[in-house]
Amino acid sequence: MLVCFLSIAVFLLNAAPIELQRRIIDMAVKGGPASAIMTALLINCAVILSFGLIKLLMNIYRAWLGECATRTLRLTVDRSLFARTEPRQRHAGDGTGLSMIFAEADDVGAFVGSSISVPIVEAGFLISVFIYLARLDSAMMLLSLVVLASQFLFVPIMQKAINRRVADRTLVLRQLGDGLVSPLGIEAGAPLNAAFSLAMGIFKLKFSLNFLMNLSYSLGNVLVLGIGSLLVLRGQLEIATVVTFVSAMSKVVDPWNDMVDWARNLAVTRVKYRLIVDGCSPLGDDPAAAGRPPLSPAAAGPA
To answer: Is this structure's pTM higher than 0.70?
Structure first.
């Protein structure tokens, strides 16, 4: 509940300067009183400061949530691992267990910390901005929305390819960990080469996706600026409104990217969490059966 309230406050304060900037530009163009402009500037500064402080508090709190989730997941995996009754089976999965506890749990826990705040902050900001833009000019708002919506043509396809490679790389690293702790050993060259190839495939897809998203933003800004300028020449739009739309488009880039990253992280985290669940599912639930107690919350340290 706290992170929800903080997230709502953050996106409202983040959207407020758009209207304040429009009013300042409008007063300057129309030769408004300097006192009114200074008052609007001071209000804008106060909103920016409040936004920064509340966002700082929200980031610290959601980081705490993520670390709590990571610790809980590690404790759960630890209990499952040492519930194995067969010593040989216990040893054979040590590499997989270490990978789940030290690497995979971090990724899942980090996403848990931002799983609520990111969609509230970024989606709330985007919705509020587009509602505001619709009040200024509905046709220009639809044009701006089309620019962002065009990314749905390539983002889902490329994300599915990334998910497949993430799952394959996780399994390869688990196999490598199992082989390294096994008395029989393992030839590490082949798994390491496979992990390298999969990682490079992930990087290529991610950077290509970022390139296409940035390209669509840049072309969209040119389109909005061009059409807006033509409407100004025809007397159908005010220059302050065009500046507001261009400013709004630049402000929605980061929230939109954050929403896309959140959706991508959600897909990747679901893959990793499913692999953790599958790795623990055949194990027992009684830690005493392994002859060694699992980690206690106190041993894990304070949150």
So the answer is: no
Query: How many whole angstroms separate alpha carbon 92 and alpha carbon 96?
Result: 8
d(CA 212, CA 246): 20
Contact 172, 194 (CB under 8 A): yes
pLDDT band at 285 (very low <50, low <70, confident <90, very high): very low
Rounded mean pLDDT, 48-54:
88
Token pair listed for 34: 């300097």
How many Å apart are CA 20 and CA 7, to the nearest integer? 21
Q: Work out the mean pLDDT of the chain and round it to a whole number.
A: 76
Q: How far apart are CA 167 and CA 286, in angstroms?
A: 29
Q: Is the pLDDT of residue 200 over 50?
A: yes
Q: Which residue has the tokens 């749990």?
A: 105
Q: Mind giving me the DSSP string for the chain? A: -HHHHHHHHHHHHHHHHHHHHHHHHHHHHTT--HHHHHHHHHHHHHHHHHHHHHHHHHHHHHHHHHHHHHHHHHHHHHHHHTT-S-HHHHHHTHHHHHHIIIIIHHHHHHHHHHTTHHIIIIIHHHHHHHHHHHHH-HHHHHHHHHHHHGGGGTHHHHHHHHHHHHHHHHHHHHHHHHHHHSTT----HHHHHHHHHHHHHHHHHHHHHHHHHHHHHHHHHHHHHHHHHHHHHTTSS-HHHHHHHHHHHHHHHHHHHHHHHHHHHHHHHHHHHHHHHHHHTTS-S-GGGGTSPPPPHHHH---
Phi, psi of 237 (to 5 degrees): -150, 150
Query: Hey, how many other C-beta atoms are within 10 angstroms of the C-beta on 78?
Result: 22
| Separation of alpha carbons 184 and 187, rounded Å | 10
Counting beta carbons within 10 angstroms of the beta carbon of residue 246, is it exposed (0 to 12), middle (13 to 18) or buried (19 or more)? middle
Q: Are 282 and 90 in contact (CB under 8 A)?
A: no
